[in-house]
């Protein structure tokens, strides 16, 4: 398959990342299918997409015609049978079994050359691919949050990934207006491996009562970071951030430097998942 053969992209999982990846693909001109098992999540994703495109129109960044065309290219569905595409990008919860099972399900109903890409932040592509039919077409395509804005995409080659598939995903990333960076298959790849300490150490400071989460955020922002770690965890999703740390802790054979925080675990258990749930380290209940 060449870049010109890619007409349709399906995104699985319409949460924080899936919504923005699907919007990005539709804006770039691809027929795009956004699938989720959860109808409420799908409705929220549709509303978020409408609002985001409307903001772009109001800022004069896109025309009303482009807005309409983009929406026309997008299908929101809870029917897995509609997930038929040249490229499938999964952005479901950070769990190996869920990713393997959903990719296998779509592998079954798609052509053998359909690329199966994972937006995983931390799970080894080789391990995901091991239980999927046609592991040579399984590849990592790791966008950053929000995918419509962030420039970087990590393209990850698993042990079985065909070099042509890796090259094709690099080309696709460029077509989507992104800068692809090639990474080999190590837990957390490049960015999350480095960034993990930003979160883990900040959580330790909080647990040791060295400073409040607001104080840590303010200090790090003042020192040049665009967002503090707690603001960022709320944007990412406290649950997703916790799953990524947990997966990396296991992948590095319980190396204490990646040990997940019990404080963060408690936030996850309480349903305080950040912006998407209305409350995380900060309260968003009063905000639209
Ligand atoms: P999320 O929790 O916001 O969304 C996950 C979605 O997957 C939910 O809507 C859920 O209903 C859906 N889902 C779960 N099982 C499913 C299934 N079997 N079939 C269809 N849909 C299913 O998660 P988020 O944050 O969007 O993360 C998704 C993936 O993207 C994870 O692998 C995460 O590591 C990765 N990622 C997350 C980033 C972030 O900033 N949140 C950044 C880059 C990657």
From TrEMBL:
Binding site for CoA: 52, 59, 121
This enzyme's EC code(s): 1.1.1.157
GO molecular function (one): NAD+ binding
The keyword Cell cycle belongs to this UniProt entry's keyword annotation: no
SUPFAM superfamilies registered for this protein in UniProt: 6-phosphogluconate dehydrogenase C-terminal domain-like, NAD(P)-binding Rossmann-fold domains
InterPro entries according to UniProt: 3-OHacyl-CoA_DH, 3-OHacyl-CoA_DH_NAD-bd, 3HC_DH_C, 6-PGluconate_DH-like_C_sf, 6PGD_dom2, NAD(P)-bd_dom_sf
Record's protein name: 3-hydroxybutyryl-CoA dehydrogenase
Species of origin: Rufibacter quisquiliarum
């Amino acid at each position: 398959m060449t870049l010109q053969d890619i007409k349709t992209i399906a995104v699985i999982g319409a949460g924080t990342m899936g919504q923005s990846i699907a919007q990005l693909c539709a804006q770039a001109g691809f027929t795009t299918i956004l699938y989720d098992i959860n109808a409420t999540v799908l409705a929220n994703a549709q509303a978020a997409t409408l609002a985001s495109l409307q903001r772009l129109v109001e800022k004069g960044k896109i025309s009303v015609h482009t807005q309409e065309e983009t929406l026309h290219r997008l299908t929101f569905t809870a029917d897995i049978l509609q997930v038929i595409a040249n490229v499938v990008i999964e952005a479901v919860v950070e769990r190996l079994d869920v990713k393997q099972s959903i990719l296998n399900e779509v592998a079954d109903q798609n052509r053998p050359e359909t690329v199966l890409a994972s937006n995983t932040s931390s799970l080894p592509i080789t391990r995901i691919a091991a239980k999927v039919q046609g592991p040579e077409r399984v590849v990592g395509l790791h966008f950053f949050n929000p995918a419509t804005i962030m420039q970087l995409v990590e393209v990850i080659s698993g042990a079985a990934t065909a070099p042509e598939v890796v090259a094709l995903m690099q080309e696709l990333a460029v077509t989507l207006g992104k800068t692809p960076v090639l990474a080999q298959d190590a837990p957390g790849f490049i960015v999350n491996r480095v960034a993990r300490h930003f979160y883990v150490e900040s959580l330790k400071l909080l647990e040791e009562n060295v400073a409040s989460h607001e104080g840590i955020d303010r200090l790090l922002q003042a020192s040049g970071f665009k967002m503090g770690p707690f603001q960022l965890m709320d944007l990412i999703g406290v649950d997703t951030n916790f799953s990524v740390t947990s997966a990396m802790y296991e992948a590095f054979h319980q190396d204490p430097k990646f040990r997940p925080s019990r404080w963060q675990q408690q936030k996850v258990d309480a349903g305080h998942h950040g912006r998407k749930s209305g409350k995380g380290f900060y309260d968003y209940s009063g905000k639209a």
